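If you are new to this repository, start here. Below is one unmodified record pulled from the training split, so you can see the exact layout before writing a loader.
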Amino acid sequence: MSRRPRAFAYTGGFLTQARVRRILTLAGLPPQIGLPGPRDSVMVWGHSPRAWRGERIAARKGTPLIRVEDAFLRSLFPGRQGAGPMGLLIDRRGVQYDGRHVSDLELLLRSDPLDDATLLARAQGAMARLREAHLTKYAAVDPDLPLPAPGFVLVADQARDDASILASNAGPGTFQLMLERARADHPGKRIVIKTHPETAQGLRSGYLSTAEADAHLATPVSPYALLDRAAAVYTVSSQIGFEAILAGHRPHVFGQPFYAGWDLSEDHARMPRRGRHLSADQLFAAAMILYPTWYDPLHDRLCDLETVINQLEARARSWREDRKGWQASGMRPWKRPIIQRFFGQHGPVRFAPHADPDSPRPQMVWASKAPVADDNHTRVEDGFLRSRGLGATLTPPMSLVADRKGIHYDPRQPSDLEHWISQRAQLRPDQAERVEHLMARLIAAGLSKYNLPGRRPNLPVAGRGRRVLVVGQVEDDASVLAGAGPVRSNLELLRSARREEPDAQLIYKPHPDVEAGLRTGAVDPGEIARLGAHVAHGINAADLINEVGTVWTMTSLLGFEALLRRREVVVLGAPFYAGWGLTVDLGTPPARRTARPSLLGLAHAALIDYPRYVDPVSGQPCPVELIVDRLTQGADAVPHPLWRLLGLLFSAQATGRRQRWTMSSPAR
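And here is the target side for that same chain:
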């Protein structure tokens, strides 16, 4: 039996950097130590200063040479601060930034048809997502940082003696020539020099000084926000030249990077091998979809570009929103470790009984503790895919929302969720595909907010009338107090449903917290019987929705979950999903809700855009798709020891209340 070819490495990084080693192993190239045989290969890191060791051994042994580099979406931060790359470029011919030799990427760009409609649609969607999420190689950039006034000429500085500079036979003179050409081409225009991230962090020096421009940007600004304001772009070989092409520019290029030579840039260095005319979509498809080896660290497996975008977007959002640190008030002690886990990864959250108006930190408060007309606090609440268990039993959440305008359950003022729903009135094809796939997975797995174990529905045989589900709620819940209309109790909700649906088979589902005896909202069993309703005790909510045609609710999230399952939803209050043309509104939703999103648009806003998710396994910010995986697999957030003790206490109290409920209920 012949052995598999091996890949040998002669620099420590391949062995000591766990993420790099893992990606290579999954790609079939686990780094080896020793001397290669005839069927083996040698790996080196691009044209790094230590690459000569592997190059010399490969030449002496006559074995193939593989050059490895970081992919074009790497991490939040440069270097080891970035926790390792999200992907690698594994090239068996050359390296992408060295125009002196053909690389695998150049061969793709020269010879692959790049005309597959599905591939190009993926490229268009991914390009739009990178721009919308402001994702770049090092994604710790803030699109809200101050930028120069529009109309400037952007000149990209780079880290001194970077391999891409040396491979282009460029140096200090090249950068001076580029700067002079920018001034000559645009007399009277302001020159803005963009510092390389590694230079801004003091890791490496650059080529251009602050005295050589009208403005010098060393802050972590978004390249896409910057490019939208630039009149022209000049670079030697920086990745911002590639991003400029994606943003619609035709950059001036003075080196020989992979994106030059395809009639998408003004090239000041000769590239005789390249002459094919490509579109930006084709360039992106080759460089970002076909060429890299992408890695999903949360599942520990290779993946596609879209998965990397999902995860890096979640991490970048966490950094952007949390990097200044938070001051939190109105948080019960058992919630504080949760808040720290969600919002304290880039600076600890400071807790206080009351907000300090003089603190420079942004302020957050648990939503129910905030005054209605309070514009100074970000309100925090549970998300819509929360956990496997009730909040009332102290089950830690996997999602939270942080709303700067209001909160989703309070229609008395606008919220960030309303903003997102309006924004998603029109979806791009990639957005529609993503949320449609997400909805299909939620429905197939029977997932809901709490995902409690429950019996399968065993409902009475329906007569001639249709089945109508009436959703009970916690009557003193904030969503009822803020968003219910004249009907504010579960009994009145049942009566309203019976008046409007005299021939229907009413199925009443008590709220899990009420059913567990933990919150208010119980309805007298005799009243339920007089209304001819069947009580669905202990039945999984998602399964129950599948058994009915219509759902009646005041403000319950089950109304949203019923919409996801394409059921008719009758609403007597003004929850976040009412007033957009998707529900039968018997209440009075806010007149400001004038957008008409599709169901997919509503779901995208509520499940993808609005919440923050944290992986219960790794503790890292993550996208909603990972939470669906964890819930489907039965993973739970790891509770604090105090939560376990309090949970046992709540459980014992709830058992007694359930027994009293059962004894007082009619036989069923």
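Two things worth knowing about this chain: The domain at 423-609 is CATH 3.40.50 (Rossmann fold). The mean pLDDT is 91.
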